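Lab notebook, bench 4. The sequencing result for the construct came back, and we need a structural model before the next group meeting so we can plan mutations. Quick request posted to the team channel:

Model the 3D structure of this chain.
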Amino acid sequence: MTNMGGQMFSRWILHCGLLGLAVAAVPAGIAAQEIDFGRIGAFESMGSGTVRTGSPPKTPIDDDEQHAIFLTIWNSDTDAKVYWKALDSDKEQTTVIHGTGVRAFQTNGEFKIQVIGEGDHEVKYDYVLLHLRKK
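Done. Here's the predicted structure in token form:
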């Protein structure tokens, strides 16, 4: 395995481990989207990014397909705002994420992340993107 292939495999293992910890450690009172894992058709991609105050939102998804996305914010000194479309609507939804953590979203073709606040702040994140089959 090449060094680049080894790094990608290591990141994939890390993402899966973080996702498992996030699912196991979710507090009882937290609300979350219900994900039908039977609809997952294929792994699409994974990536990482940094978004800073004053920058336009980063857009990992901008198409007309349905996806599940697992977002890990692993370094943040501010809040992040996520824009997404629910599976059953074309209306844009927003979710504010305070600090670090793992969130799962099902989106209908749009997903953007932006930093909220004044001053010099940044949010570093990783994501795993999965294609959802039609019902």
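The domain at 39-132 is CATH 2.60.120.10 (Jelly Rolls).
Will bring this to the meeting.
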